[in-house]
Amino acid sequence: MQFPQEGVYAPFIGPFDPCPPIRLKTYSLPPNLFIHFQPPGLPQFSPREALRKGTLWPDLYSSYTSKMNAKEAD
Protein backbone atom coordinates (compact mmCIF):
# COMPACT_ATOMS: atom_id res chain seq x y z
CA MET A 1 0.00 0.00 0.00
CA GLN A 2 1.22 3.49 -0.77
CA PHE A 3 -0.15 6.52 1.02
CA PRO A 4 0.73 10.20 0.76
CA GLN A 5 3.26 11.23 3.42
CA GLU A 6 2.55 14.96 3.23
CA GLY A 7 -0.43 17.17 2.63
CA VAL A 8 -0.32 20.71 1.23
CA TYR A 9 -2.62 23.69 1.68
CA ALA A 10 -2.62 27.37 0.78
CA PRO A 11 -3.15 29.53 3.89
CA PHE A 12 -5.01 32.82 3.89
CA ILE A 13 -2.71 35.73 3.15
CA GLY A 14 -4.04 38.99 4.58
CA PRO A 15 -3.29 42.33 2.96
CA PHE A 16 -1.80 43.70 6.19
CA ASP A 17 0.38 40.76 7.26
CA PRO A 18 3.72 42.14 8.49
CA CYS A 19 5.76 39.10 7.38
CA PRO A 20 6.44 37.82 3.88
CA PRO A 21 3.71 35.30 2.96
CA ILE A 22 4.24 31.58 2.86
CA ARG A 23 2.23 30.55 -0.20
CA LEU A 24 2.04 26.80 0.51
CA LYS A 25 2.31 25.00 3.84
CA THR A 26 2.78 21.27 4.37
CA TYR A 27 1.74 18.91 7.13
CA SER A 28 2.49 15.29 7.95
CA LEU A 29 -0.04 12.54 7.19
CA PRO A 30 0.65 9.47 9.34
CA PRO A 31 -0.12 6.16 7.60
CA ASN A 32 -2.46 4.98 10.38
CA LEU A 33 -5.02 7.53 9.09
CA PHE A 34 -5.55 5.35 6.03
CA ILE A 35 -5.59 1.86 7.64
CA HIS A 36 -8.73 1.58 9.78
CA PHE A 37 -8.12 -1.99 10.93
CA GLN A 38 -5.23 -4.40 10.65
CA PRO A 39 -5.86 -6.59 7.62
CA PRO A 40 -4.62 -10.18 7.91
CA GLY A 41 -1.37 -11.13 6.22
CA LEU A 42 0.36 -7.73 6.24
CA PRO A 43 4.06 -8.03 5.40
CA GLN A 44 6.40 -7.55 8.35
CA PHE A 45 9.91 -6.21 8.91
CA SER A 46 12.49 -8.50 10.46
CA PRO A 47 12.71 -8.02 14.27
CA ARG A 48 15.98 -6.06 13.96
CA GLU A 49 14.60 -3.81 11.20
CA ALA A 50 11.34 -3.31 13.13
CA LEU A 51 13.29 -2.04 16.15
CA ARG A 52 15.16 0.42 13.93
CA LYS A 53 12.04 1.67 12.15
CA GLY A 54 9.74 1.72 15.21
CA THR A 55 7.02 -0.47 13.70
CA LEU A 56 6.62 -4.09 12.68
CA TRP A 57 4.65 -3.36 9.50
CA PRO A 58 6.12 -1.52 6.49
CA ASP A 59 2.69 -0.09 5.67
CA LEU A 60 2.70 1.81 8.98
CA TYR A 61 6.26 3.12 8.60
CA SER A 62 6.59 6.83 7.97
CA SER A 63 10.06 8.28 7.66
CA TYR A 64 10.61 11.69 9.20
CA THR A 65 12.79 14.30 7.59
CA SER A 66 13.39 17.46 9.54
CA LYS A 67 12.72 20.67 7.65
CA MET A 68 15.12 22.49 9.98
CA ASN A 69 18.09 20.50 8.67
CA ALA A 70 17.02 21.15 5.07
CA LYS A 71 16.92 24.92 5.71
CA GLU A 72 20.38 24.89 7.30
CA ALA A 73 21.84 23.08 4.27
CA ASP A 74 20.66 25.83 1.88
What does this structure look like?
The structure is a single chain. The chain has 74 residues and is α+β, with helices and mostly antiparallel strands. The chain contains 2 helices and 2 strands, in the order ββαα. Strands 1-2 form a two-stranded antiparallel sheet. The chain is elongated and about 55 Å long. The relative contact order is 0.18. The model has no long low-confidence stretch (mean pLDDT 83). Pfam families: CotJA (PF11007). This is Spore coat associated protein CotJA.
In short:
The chain is an alpha+beta fold and 74 residues long. The chain is built from two helices and two strands; from the N terminus they run E-E-H-H.
What's the total number of strands?
A: 2
Strand order of the largest sheet: 1-2
Low-confidence stretches: none
| Strand residues, percent | 5-15%
Helix content: 10-25%
In whole angstroms, the N-to-C terminal distance is 33 Å
With helices defined by DSSP (H or I, 4 residues minimum), what is the helix count?
Answer: 2
Largest sheet features: 2 strands, antiparallel
Mean pLDDT: 83
Radius of gyration: 18 Å
Helix/strand/pairing class, anyone?
alpha+beta
Spatial shape: elongated
SSE string? EEHH
